[in-house]
Amino acid sequence: MKLTTERSPRKAKGQGPERREEILAAALRLFNEFGVYAVSTRQIAVAVGISQPTLYAYFPTKDQIGSELQNRAFGLLADALTAGAKGDVRSLEDLVAMLRIYVDFGLTNPDMYRIAFMWQAAPGGAGRPEPDQALSPAAQSTYGVLRREITDLHERGLTLGLDPETLTQSVWAAMHGLIALVIVKPGFPWVEREHLITSHLTLIARGLLARAAASAFPGTASSR
Amino acid sequence: MKLTTERSPRKAKGQGPERREEILAAALRLFNEFGVYAVSTRQIAVAVGISQPTLYAYFPTKDQIGSELQNRAFGLLADALTAGAKGDVRSLEDLVAMLRIYVDFGLTNPDMYRIAFMWQAAPGGAGRPEPDQALSPAAQSTYGVLRREITDLHERGLTLGLDPETLTQSVWAAMHGLIALVIVKPGFPWVEREHLITSHLTLIARGLLARAAASAFPGTASSR
Amino acid sequence: MKLTTERSPRKAKGQGPERREEILAAALRLFNEFGVYAVSTRQIAVAVGISQPTLYAYFPTKDQIGSELQNRAFGLLADALTAGAKGDVRSLEDLVAMLRIYVDFGLTNPDMYRIAFMWQAAPGGAGRPEPDQALSPAAQSTYGVLRREITDLHERGLTLGLDPETLTQSVWAAMHGLIALVIVKPGFPWVEREHLITSHLTLIARGLLARAAASAFPGTASSR
Amino acid sequence: MKLTTERSPRKAKGQGPERREEILAAALRLFNEFGVYAVSTRQIAVAVGISQPTLYAYFPTKDQIGSELQNRAFGLLADALTAGAKGDVRSLEDLVAMLRIYVDFGLTNPDMYRIAFMWQAAPGGAGRPEPDQALSPAAQSTYGVLRREITDLHERGLTLGLDPETLTQSVWAAMHGLIALVIVKPGFPWVEREHLITSHLTLIARGLLARAAASAFPGTASSR
DNA sequence: TATGAATGAGTCTTCATTCAT
DNA sequence: GATGAATGAAGACTCATTCAT
So what's the pLDDT on residue A140? Predict the structure, then answer.
């Protein structure tokens, strides 16, 4: 029962690490377009131009591809935030700038953002999804940058009287919500994107501010 | 997660419309416990106590079950919000109360919230017409309740100088973010839940407020 | 990504239990011809004339097919032995007759014998094969018939001075050896089959006998 | 049984013929532990500390490894038997001693015995010429030692009146049966091993003996 | 010589769906 | 209206083997 067929020419394009990157790129694209669950290893292989088994020379499991992408996404985001927060002096404007980076990252790379924050790794085989053993180091890093910034502001008395941890989680959630909704409901009649982002950041910053600081914040004159 | 072929103990009671409800209930439960993609029509059938083909007498497609659940979820949320907003007088406290209802709904019924706001029916790949990315009527209703409330506040000069549409979307996003993150990252070291919610609502309300109103809002004394 | 193709006509030949039997028969044949490990569920399905998934409506696992066949084989063998041992009086000739039944069964149904006594059920997933938790009930029954017979003889003083348990195991082993070797080494220049069997049984019986009885046993005149 | 790609700690030492031996040794060990079918060429390669393709520099096929091991096993067994049969004088005790060697070999090296007598190289299915069902030279040698011994006894009038060929096959079968059953059914409630072996050999020897000789054989007093 | 990389074929199994009764 | 039975398609993954270097 051995069938011999014409061998197809071996692919020898990008080997080793490069091939790995190709796989990740293709997977990310497909995951985003069809959803992680709807993409098969075969589709990924075809997209890369390799055979299905070859995939397993680079990743032991389909989920591992997802996990790696997730970690990368967290890493990139953390890098972007860190880069944006390099200045010594931390003002409110700095915070808003950082939040802007966060939002831009999410809306510019919806695929990555999606896999980072809107995907739960495999159920783990057991019946019930594992409780997501905390965040990965990369994720913690991302969160850490944000918290550091906010803690700083807090220690300077620039925030309202809540502990920095809570504030950070709250701010994070507010921003995540915008990105997530826009991604998941693209058909919704959103107001103009730039306006929406700016307004949202303003809302968050105003909510975060101590009263004194609030008065100094631009764009807060009540209308009517 | 291997479900044997054995009948479920409770043989299906009702028929016709009632049976339909049973199916939806079972599906919702399973979807939530194992995830939409991990639940098979067989499992649903077994859980309901009917045969697999019978399912197709009530729903043409598995995705249709999801879609119907999605609509129902929107409906329930809209109802809850409407009920909470029935008072004539619209104050800031009223708004916060409504937001609270929204958050509570999401965190109390994560299964429904998830399927309503964090699930996209199969993109249809190729061949099937995209089911119109706009929000369903039920979803629009949900959004409508919120917008009406905020518009009201706006017209009374209680909000900062942005158009109500933008404000609504921003507020909605901020709340969605909290619920979504808590659902997707249950392993994250969140601060105490009640504290988190309260703080978040405070932050949103403060961000929304006109300056004058802000000073009147409780819990906003700056610290340090 | 949904491809529609012409449906092939549904098979409706032997349904239910009959289909089950067809599967077992086909599997037995294939298992014997190619070895259990070399036979795939697909091959079985093709041999039966059904689709691969249909197999799983009758057996949850490939190994289950093997196990069922094994149990059946034991059952048939036990039945054959029991039928042959129905006489009240138990003489040496009766024992030899029973042994003959055993050997005939094995050589007439090498496929069944093989799967019963020369196959170990699946390694069980864990690294090392499970210690074959004793014999199955059917197997125990088979062994029991033999032991009962020998114990009887023993109690009548017709066997040499060893405990019946040991004798039974020894006799069993001696017979198994003949069948197993003939099956596994069909190319070996065996002496004429009938002669081989008769001689082997004689040898076993002679070895089993008490001295007094031995002298009465036919075909034992020493040659030269 | 997932073997990672990591190199085995002991990097392959020898090359050429030595390497070949290493491969055989590793394969034998793995075959025994997990079963021939459950062991992959990759696992063998990893165990040896070489790459998978390198295997094919030493053996054209996985089955060839099995075949070679089979031949080796036969050779070792033949050697053991020959060594045990070196004495000039051939008595019944000598025969029993030789049988004991055979049984000991089988139970001490179940891996080898299994591959020698209980494994058939891939039937080749269709396309490949059947590798001649006759026994290999090594196997014939093993059988030859036994037959020579029994022929000797026969010519001295010590055996019952059957041709030596038949006797040899019968004795061989009887011993094989014990080893094979013990190996395949380790979970069976066997009587104490040493006792079982001794009894079995006694049974065989008694069956083989001419009447006169029988009376002189120890341990044959009838009971009851 | 040895290997990194790749591959066709195949494994068991599960799915959503539909036919015939 | 309901179901037992069946099915095409696809799922992830592993295997023995071979090409190009």
Answer: 82
DSSP label at A37?
Answer: G
CB-based contact A111:A36 (threshold 8 Å): no
Instruction: Extract the tokens encoding D78.
Output: 């033949």
CB D99 within 8 A of CB D175: yes
| A15: nt with nearest C1' to CA | E5
Instruction: Report which DSSP code applies to B60.
Output: S
Three-state DSSP at A63 gives helix
| Most confident by average pLDDT, A81-95, A163-177, C81-95, D128-142 | A163-177
CA dist., res. A160 & res. A153, Å (int): 10
Tracing tokens 């049969």 back to the chain, one arrives at: D85
Cβ(C150)–Cβ(C171) under 8 Å? Answer: yes
Mean of pLDDT values over B132-150: 78
Asked if C15 CB < 7 A from strand F, the reply is yes
Q: For position D14, what pLDDT does the model report? A: 59
**DSSP per-residue letters across B52-102:** HHHHHHH-SSHHHHHHHHHHHHHHHHHHHHHHHT--S---HHHHHHHHHHH
As ranges, strand E nucleotides with an atom below 7 A of a protein CB are 1-21
Cα–Cα dist C200/D177, whole Å: 12
Q: Please say whether the beta carbons of B220 and A211 come within 8 A.
A: yes
For the cut 60, the answer to whether the pLDDT of residue C132 exceeds it is no
Is C8 within 7 A of strand F by CB distance?
A: yes
Place of tokens 């100094």: A216
State in Å, rounded, how far the first CA of chain C is from the last one. 83
Contacts by B150-159 with C-beta closer than 8 Å and gap 24+? B150/B95, B150/B208, B152/B90, B153/B90, B153/B92, B153/B95, B153/B208, B156/B90, B157/A222, B157/A223, B157/A224, B157/B210, B158/B92, B158/B209, B158/B210, B158/B213, B159/A222, B159/A223, B159/B208, B159/B209, B159/B210
pLDDT of C129 higher than 60: no
B173/B203 Cα distance (integer angstroms): 13
pLDDT score, position B171 = 95
Q: Which two tokens stand for residue C20?
A: 């089950």
What is the torsion angle, in degrees rounded to the nearest 10, for the CA atoms of residue B36, residue B37, residue B38 and residue B40?
90
Question: Distance between alpha carbon B162 and the CA centroid of its chain, in Å?
Answer: 26
Question: Per CA to C1' distance, which residue is closest to E18?
Answer: B53
Contact B177, B214 (CB under 8 A): no
Six-digit token string for A8: 């197809």
**Paired strand residues for C160:** D222
Residue nearest to nucleotide F21 (CA to C1'): A12
Q: How many CB atoms lie within 10 A of CB C54?
A: 14
How far apart CA A43 and CA B74 sit, in angstroms, is 34
**B119 CB-to-strand E distance under 7 Å:** no
- pTM (2 d.p.): 0.79
- The rounded distance, in Å, linking the Cα atoms of D52 and D41 is 7
Cα(D205)–Cα(D214) distance, integer angstroms = 9
In the structure, how far is the CA atom of residue A34 from the C1' atom of nucleotide F2, in angstroms?
35
Q: What percent of chain C has pLDDT over 70?
A: 77
The encoded tokens of residue C2 equal 């949904």
Distance CA D102, CA D119 (A): 18
Beta bridge mates, D222: C160
**How many other β-carbons are positioned within 10 Å of the β-carbon of residue D206?**
22
Rounded CA-CA distance A212/D185 in Å is: 85
Q: How many residues does chain B have?
A: 224
Chains that touch B (3 or more CB pairs under 8 A): A, C
* Dihedral angle, C-alpha D32, D37, D42, D47, nearest 10 °: 0
CB contact at 8 A, A45 and A55: yes
How far apart CA A23 and CA A20 sit, in angstroms, is 5
Q: Spell out the residues 6+ positions from residue C164 whose beta carbon is closer than 8 angstroms to its own.
A: C147, C150, C151, C154
Burial classification of residue D15, based on how many CB atoms lie within 10 Å of its CB (0-12 exposed, 13-18 middle, 19 or more buried): exposed
